Amino acid sequence: MADLQYYPRGFGLRPQIEERLQVDYHSQIVDHMKAHGYTLAAGDLTFRLAAEFGFCYGVDRAVEYAYETRTRFPDRDIYITGEIIHNPHVNSRLQEMGIRFLSGDGAVAEGWDRLGSQDVVILPAFGVTVGQLALLRARGCTLVDTTCGSVLNVWKNVERYARDGFTSVIHGKFNHEETRATASRTCLYPGGRYLVVRDLEETERVCDHIRVGGDGEAFRARFGQAASGSFDPNRDLEKVGVANQTTMLSSESLEVAERIRRAMAARYGEAALTEHFRSFDTICSATQDRQDAVLKLLKGGVSLMLVIGGYNSSNTNHLAELAAGTVPTFHIEDAACLLGSESIRHKPIGLKSAEITPGWLPEGPVVIGITAGASTPNNRIGEVVERILEIRGLDVAPILGL
Predict the structure, then answer these.
(1) Is 178 part of the annotated catalytic residue set?
(2) Does 2 score more than 80 pLDDT?
(3) What's the average model confidence in pLDDT over 12-21?
(4) Average pLDDT in the 227-250 region?
(5) Could you give the angle at which helices 378-391 and 28-35 cross, rounded to 10 degrees?
């Protein structure tokens, strides 16, 4: 691919887009909370914000590159292969800027078939599959690559596994864009194989097969598309390298790796373990930092927890899962989910759609913990705080000195 057609580092136009980014995503309330120990107090309400929250570096970079792309190519048709990040407000804003989606909700007609050499295509933070990238190259599209560095790090490990004859066992969700892209990297080497395990239950099925073998057909039927074509567990689980979707729950990913390591040791012996098992912790630092910050916030004592972010955001769902074991926790997309003091629309842990729950905000003094997924902009956090104050009949302006 010619260098002028591929842009992996943006266009250096941050000064030109800075004001637009501030207007679209900045929050005075969040700035105030950060300047006051991540706390805001008003009436009988105390808000405590996790010390790590919201946009991570990779997401911030992806959004910045999308804005730069619109500025750099004002008269060109610009597309994104799918959601640039898992936040409905950010994706909607990009569509308002005339950037169209090739797949997912609101996708343009004909999608990928309409692409040509005059089109600009943005690759999302999750990355794209090897096959999708080949198609874009064949069409001669100008590519702006926002793939997160943490995702690229996982790809390097998976490619190394495939090169050395190891099957990649990936802890993740097979229908997630990042995991599909990661799994596709195994095809870069002859005989490359992958298997995606979603949780510890699926991991145990894999471990059982490693230890004692079993019915290959039943195994393939159980995992379906989560395994590479012609996957043979009796052959392809002899040498395994563990990787993970970067936004999974860190403790679970580590447990997946440990269980598979123990199964390999039981089958082949500790002395031969390096010949059959490899593992690298590839949870991104931002995901880990946000999970750690939630645990620290919970230790400080909160009455309830609000987790703000897209319902299809993996890292946001895991933040909610972490908090739910300690206090009442509500995963909401935005301030519109706060219907009043008596009801809230939120996505319960483990469910795919939102429900309405009554009595979420108790009377009397309340300490509300707040965090947000790595794809949630600051203005959505500030709007949630402002909405709760409004529900209590309080005005944020005096607090901010406005």
Answers:
(1) yes
(2) no
(3) 97
(4) 95
(5) 90
Quick one: pLDDT at residue 4?
A: 54
Helix axes 14-25, 378-391, angle to 10 degrees: 20
Amino acid at 398: P
What is residue 210's predicted lDDT score, i.e. its pLDDT? 98
Provide the whole-model pTM.
Answer: 0.93
> Domain tally for the chain?
3
Range of the domain at 106: 57-148
Taking the chain, what is the end-to-end CA distance rounded to the nearest angstrom? 53
Share the mean pLDDT of the chain.
95
Contact status, residue 158 vs residue 243, Cβ threshold 8 Å: yes
The answer to the question of residue 218 being in a domain is yes
Residues 166 and 269 in one domain: yes
- pLDDT for position 324: 97
Write the pLDDT tens digit of every residue in 168-195.
999 999 999 999 999 999 999 999 999 9
Catalytic residue selected from 68, 178, 383, 386? 178
pLDDT of residue 110: 85
Query: What's the confidence (pLDDT) of residue 251?
Result: 92
Give the chain as a 3 state SS string.
CCHHHEECCCCCCHHHHHHHHHHHHCCHHHHHHHHCCCEEEECCEEEEECCCCCCCHHHHHHHHHHHHHHHHCCCCCEEECCCCCCCHHHHHHHHHCCEEECCCCCCCCCHHHHCCCCCEEEECCCCCCHHHHHHHHHHCCEEEECCCHHHHHHHHHHHHHHHCCCEEEEECCCCCHHHHHHHHHHHHCCCCCEEEECCHHHHHHHHHHHHHCCCHHHHHHHHHHHECCCCCHHHHCCCEEEEECCCCCHHHHHHHHHHHHHHHHHHHCHHHHHHCEEECCCCCHHHHHHHHHHHHHHHCCCCEEEEECCCCCHHHHHHHHHHHCCCCEEEECCHHHECCCCEEEECCCCCCCCEEEECCCCCCCEEEEEEECCCCCHHHHHHHHHHHHHHCCCCCHHHHCC
**What percent of the chain has pLDDT above 70?**
99
298 and 208 in a single domain? The answer is: no
Q: Is 318 in the same domain as 243?
A: no
pLDDT at site 3: 45
